[in-house]
Design goal:
Largest sheet: 6 strands, mixed
Number of domains: 1
Structural class: alpha/beta
CATH topology: Rossmann fold
Number of strands: 9
Number of helices: 9
Mean pLDDT: 90
CATH superfamily: P-loop containing nucleotide triphosphate hydrolases
Helix content: 25-40%
Radius of gyration: 18 Å
């Protein structure tokens, strides 16, 4: 069983020799989606580049998760364009964008096999899958559960496994959709520590949350969404200390935002 320190060392080795950015910057221009007469995204313009952690904050129904799916090329907008590194999205670069859903989907396999499968799916040679998978599990403090059925893990452990699996393909950008939702404080803390480790490696993270406390703890930059639009985009300290827009102020102060 690999020592827990192997995770960081092995991951640093995996990152060495990484090619130039394959997907950054990620840009969306005029992104619009409507369903059943309701506007879900309303002409959104967004650019994601560099390192750090961007939080997309806002009330339920603001369009946060949908925007993430559109940027990851998992959902086609009615109008507007998405560009990865100034070119249209394509399948060959899709592994450079990791995505962790609010409710993680576990394969009917062991914890180790869940990560190994993600690697084999993108063409990693079989001989490399096991050591790389163990390194990811060590980073997520799950190496002692490598042989356990993934579907029998706790909610927090499953979410950490989903993070490890998404990181196995060495994405430049990791999209996280409410990863701490419905978890107890200890599990949430474990997720946030893992997120901090990933940020320290230079991966750009985009985190969707409605948890103001989590946004304060983690964000470098905040995008605030309301009614399908980005109404504010600011460094974290500026956003929380001096919100410029009324919906942002109401949300931070705990008032209902309609």
């Amino acid at each position: 069983m690999p020592d827990a320190t192997l995770g960081t060392d092995s991951l640093n080795a995996l990152d060495g020799g990484r090619a130039e950015s394959a997907v950054l910057p990620i840009e969306g221009r005029g992104l619009s989606v409507a369903r059943s007469g309701r506007v879900l995204l309303d002409g959104v313009d967004i650019r994601i580049e560099g390192a750090g952690l961007t939080v997309i904050l806002g009330p339920n129904g603001a369009g946060k998760t949908l925007l993430l799916r559109v940027l990851a090329n998992l959902f086609r907008p009615d109008s507007g364009t998405v560009r990865w590194a100034h070119a249209a999205p394509d399948r060959s670069r899709a592994p450079r964008i990791g995505f962790v859903f609010q409710k993680p989907v576990m394969l009917r396999r062991s914890v180790l096999a869940n990560v190994s499968y993600a690697l084999s799916a993108v063409g990693v040679p079989r001989r490399e899958c096991a050591p790389r998978s163990h390194a990811m599990l060590a980073m997520a403090s799950l190496d002692h559960l490598a042989g356990a059925p993934a579907r029998l893990l706790s909610g927090g452990e499953q979410q950490r496994l989903a993070l490890a699996r998404a990181l196995a393909t060495e994405p430049e950008v990791l999209f996280l959709d409410e990863p701490g939702s419905s978890l107890d404080p200890a599990a949430t803390l474990a997720i946030e520590r893992l997120i901090e480790t990933v940020r320290a490696r230079g991966t750009h993270l985009v985190l969707v949350t409605h948890d103001i406390g989590q946004a304060r703890r983690l964000a470098d930059t905040v995008l605030f969404m309301h009614r399908g639009r980005i109404v504010e985009h600011a460094p974290s300290a500026d956003f929380f200390d001096h919100p410029a827009e009324r919906p942002s102020r109401d949300f931070i102060e705990g008032r209902i935002v309609l």
